[in-house]
């Protein structure tokens, strides 16, 4: 997990999204794998629920993850 810079100019939600994206890229969170929930993100990064949800939104907007109602958020399985 990357350090979150509370005094930095980059918004917290983007820092969290960047770290999660790096975990997806390096396989820590595998294709088809479940992404941490907003609650887990809050606990891991010590951020608010809004920050966690915004980070997940960034990943969805980039097409890296998709949500399944009642199941969670998962890394998109892409063909090589």
Automatic annotation (TrEMBL):
List, alphabetically, the SUPFAM superfamilies matched. Answer: Winged helix' DNA-binding domain
- Superkingdom field: Bacteria
Pfam (any one):
GntR
Q: Name one GO molecular function term.
A: DNA binding
Q: Which Gene3D superfamilies match?
A: Winged helix-like DNA-binding domain superfamily/Winged helix DNA-binding domain (1.10.10.10)
Record keywords: DNA-binding, Transcription, Transcription regulation
The record's section on CDD domains has:
WHTH_GntR
Give any single GO term for biological process: negative regulation of DNA-templated transcription
Occurrences of domain HTH gntR-type (ranges): 10-78
Q: Which PANTHER family match?
A: GNTR-FAMILY TRANSCRIPTIONAL REGULATOR, MANNOSYL-D-GLYCERATE TRANSPORT/METABOLISM SYSTEM REPRESSOR MNGR-RELATED
The protein's name in its UniProt record: Winged helix-turn-helix transcriptional regulator
- What organism is listed for this UniProt entry? Actinomadura montaniterrae
